[in-house]
Structure formats: C-alpha cells, structure tokens
Amino acid sequence: LHGKYVFIAEGVRGSLAKTIMARHNLCDDAQPQKYGIGLKELWQVPADKHRPGLAQHTTGWPLDEFTGGGSFMYHFGDRYVAIGYVVHLNYKNPFLSPFDEFQRFKHHPSIAEHLEGGTRISYGARAITEGGFQSVPKLSFPGGVLIGCSAGFVNVPRIKGSHNAMKTGMLAADAAYEAVMAGRSGDQLVEYQTAYENSWVYKELKQVRNAKPYLSKLGTTLGGAAGLFDMWFSSILGVNLPWTLKHGKTDAGSTEKASKHKPIAYPKPDGKLSFDKLSSVFVSNTNHAEEQPAHLKLLDPSIPIRVNLPLYGEPARLYCPAGVYEVLYDEQGGNPRFQINAQNCVHCKTCDIKDPSQNIVWTTPEGGGGPNYPNM
Ligand code: SF4
Asked: Terminus-to-terminus CA distance in the chain, angstroms?
C-alpha cells in the first residue's frame, strides 16, 4: 500500500484491522470488542399486508432473559418487508443457534401476520460491533487510521452506526489533508484521534456507554431499565453518571461448557414462514467456486474434534448461519470429523469471533462469489 495515509474501513472484524490492531497493540487500553450477529430476510408481501413506513423493533422473545437480542422490521418500497433479528454474541449456551432463533421469531402471531402469504426473496447475515465507547481502540498507527466499524463506532441502543462511520471518515480525511499539505506522510495521524475525542461521535457514544454492559450483567428487563435510566439521565439532564461499566469477557470467552446446558429442540421449518440454512444460503446469492483455496482456516485442525466437540458440542455447527461447519460420523456413529463447507459462507464473521478456542481465522475469499444482496 503506497498511500501517504491508509484508512482502514473494512466493517466489522475486518481481516486487515484485526492484524493491524494486534501488530500495533491498538487495543491495549480498550475493553474487549463485543459483537452481535444480525440475520435478515427481505420479503415481498401481499398488498393488503403492506404498511409503507412502518418501522418496528422488539427485544426479548424468543431469547431468554439473559441472552441479549432483538428484532427489526421495516415496510418499504414495492411491497417489501425487511425483517431481521440480532443475537448478542456473548450468549453462554453453546447449543443456541441464532439462525433458528430468528426462524422461530417469525412464528410469533404479531410477526407472522405481516409475512403470511408473502415470499422470502433474500437472506443475509453479518456481525455488528456492540462494544461502543469502552471498546474503541487507539485509532492511528504508522501510516494509517481505523474508521467506521473497523473501530466499532456503532451506537447500540440507537441501532445505528452509519452516521458515525461517515463522520469519522470525514474527521480522518480532514486530518490527512492537513498533514499532506504540511508535507507529511506515513506517520501517525494523532490529530484524528484528538478530533474524534472532541467530536459528537465521542459524546454520543459516551452517553450510551453503559447500556450494553447493563444488559449483559442484569438481563433484558432489569438491564434494559437500568440502561434507559442511565441514558435518560445523561441526555435529559446533560449529566453523565460517573461510572463506566466494563464489558468483561470476550464473546468467545463467554461461551460456557456444554455440560452446563441442555440442547435446544428447535422446531422444524415449515417452508412458508421459516426455512432451513441451505435454502437461505441459496437466496443470499452466494456461490464461491469450489476449487478456490479455502478462506476459512483453522490454526490447529485438531481442535474442533479434540477440544470443541467434547467441551462445547462444537458450537460452530450452530452459530454459523450458513451451515458451513458440520461434524460428520461414520455409519456406526463413531469417528467424528469436522467438515468445512466454505463455499456456503455468507461472510458474517461470527466464526472468527465466537469460536471458544479462537481457532478459526476468516480470510478474504476470491472476489465475485457473493453474497449479493439486491434491495437488502
Ligand atoms: S463460515 Fe463463519 S463467516 Fe462464514 S457464514 Fe459461517 S460463521 Fe459466518
């Protein structure tokens, strides 16, 4: 890369950003980054069900009190309904499947009534940063900066981050322009860090900093109420409460042993409102060439069967929303082996984040294989 300054804007859990943060110790003074996985479908519904402009958010069901998450639904355009569900990736039960929670969610009577008689036309999944204020790393390194979701500027309670991504891009651009005009290149753009700390992005993230830790520590009802009180206090009275709660463990480290939990019996998809993973991958327009080098790499190929299967039931089978990871057995039900169907990957990055052994590394596949999300 020959740019005088390189802006890293790869979105959540980017491969370059991850490497740069480790190489330059950018996270040393930050809390661990937190994540959610968002699953989304685009539907086209009958005209009598379409309510253009309707935006609806929910929290809770079908997740339990101590598993964070919630839904979104937007009616728009030509009888389109975008519907999705986010599961916070600090969940403890290794048998939980975010994909199946989303499928189950659509069967709630007050959700199903929006979709019945309609057609699901697209599907996608993507991780979201949720760490916010406490998890923002040092932003500059020699010759470059992190902007947008590479640094984790999402405002979780407001469910938005595009405005902060744009603003931090503008702040970085201003800092780089001044530096280049002064004849500088390749050094640390510390002015961008200062500009961020004096910006409304910093102020906005600081105001809501305790919302996510409250949810993690106190659960959806109590934690939600405590977060609302904290945010109202700071936004209405203009006074930030004096404490900043910590996030604690990484999302991978939050996964508990299988022996502490029971498998979850998810209902079979009905093919009308709920679907299986493979038909979902089909409508994500993902088609990686099967002979390309596998882009999902295991640091130690023995860990899925030797460690993850006995301790955690190999949760990759369940957290991956595209059916990429399977544990296969021989005809007698023995000799488990780990299979990676890399061609199905929809690039959500969840495996890179949630694998309890931190053994899976997501690298960029060949271009052009999708997923491809028209209208999503
Ligand atoms: S393989 Fe990883 S990045 Fe790809 S869809 Fe599955 S969890 Fe997401």
From this structure: 32
Give per-10-residue mean pLDDT for the chain (376 aa): 94 96 97 97 97 96 96 97 98 98 98 98 96 98 97 95 98 98 97 98 95 96 93 82 93 98 96 97 88 93 98 98 97 96 95 98 88 82
Q: Whose CA is nearest to atom 2 of ligand 1?
A: 351
Q: Six-digit token pair at 163?
A: 């405005």
Q: Mark 130-161 as b/e (b = at least 16 C-beta within 10 Å).
A: bbbbbbbbbbbbebbbbbbbbbbbbbbbeeeb
CA of 216 relative to ligand 1 center, distance in Å: 24
Fold of 258-362: Alpha-Beta Plaits (3.30.70)
Contact between 227 and 213 under an 8 Å Cβ cutoff? The reply is no
Check pocket membership of 345 for ligand 1, CB cut-off 6 A.
yes
- CA–centroid distance, residue 225 to ligand 1 (Å): 33
Question: Cβ atoms within 10 A of the Cβ of 112, count?
Answer: 14
Q: Is 346 in the pocket of ligand 1 (CB under 6 A)?
A: yes
- For the chain, give the mean pLDDT: 95
Ligand 1 geometric centre to CA of 324 (Å): 7
| Exposed/middle/buried for residue 96 (C-beta within 10 Å: 0-12, 13-18, 19+) | buried
Starting at the edge strand found earlier in the chain, the sheet holding 55-59 runs 55-59, 69-76, 80-88, 35-44, 119-129
Contact 141, 147 (CB under 8 A): no
* Predicted confidence (pLDDT) per residue in 157-187, tens digit: 999 999 999 999 999 999 999 999 999 999 9
Q: Relative to the CA of 323, which ligand 1 atom is closest?
A: 6
CA of 292 to the centre of ligand 1 (A): 16
Do 202 and 209 meet the contact criterion of CB atoms below 8 Å apart? no
CA of 371 to the centre of ligand 1 (A): 12
- Measured by CA distance, the residue closest to atom 6 of ligand 1 is 320
Classify burial at 240, counting beta carbons within 10 Å of its beta carbon; exposed 0-12, middle 13-18, buried 19 or more.
middle
